Amino acid sequence: MELYQRTIHELHNMLKKGETTSVAITDSVLKRIDAVEGKVKSYITVTADIARAQAEAADKRIKAGDTSSPLLGIPIAIKDNMCTEGIATTCASKILGNFVPPYNATVVAKLKQAGSVLCGKPNMDEFAMGSSTENSGYFITRNPWDLDRIPGGSSGGSAAAVAADECIGSLGSDTGGSIRQPAACCGVVGLKPTYGRVSRFGLVAFASSLDQIGPLTKDVTDTALLMNVIAGHDPKDSTSADIPAPDFTKALKKDMKGLRVGLPKEYFIEGMDPQVDKAVREAVRTLEALGAKVSDVSLPHTKYAVATYYILATSEASSNLARYDGVKYGYRAASPKDLLDMYMRSRDEGFGPEVKRRIMLGTYALSAGYYEAYYKKGQQARTLIKRDFDEAFKTVDLIATPTAPTAAFKIGEKSADPLQMYLSDIFTISVNLAGIPGISLPCGFTAENLPIGLQVLGRNFDEESIIHAAYAYEQATEWHTRKPTL
Amino acid sequence: MKYEAVIGLEVHAQLQTNTKIFCGCETRFGEDANTRTCPVCIGMPGVLPVLNRKAVEYIVKTGLATHCTINPSSRFARKNYFYPDLPKGYQISQYELPVCEHGYVEIVADGKVKRVGLTRIHLEEDAGKNLHQAEGGASLVDLNRAGTPLMEIVSEPDIRTPEEASEYLKKLRSILRYIEVSDADMEKGNFRCDANVSIRPTGSTEFGTRAEIKNVNSFKFVQKAIEYEIKRQAQILDEGGRVVQETRLFDSSKGVTFSMRSKEEAHDYRYFPEPDLVPVVVSRETVEQIAKTIPELPDAKRTRFVQDYGLPEYDADMLTQSRALAAYFEEATKRSNQPKVVSNWMMGELMRLMNAEGKEIEDCPIMPERLAGMIKMIGEGVISTKIAKTVFEEMYKSGKDAETVVKEQGLVQVSDTGAIESIIDEVIKANPAQASDYKAGKEKLFGFFVGQVMKASKGKANPDMVNQLLKKKLSE
Question: Is the dihedral of CA B353, B359, B364, B368 positive or negative?
Answer without folding.
Answer: positive
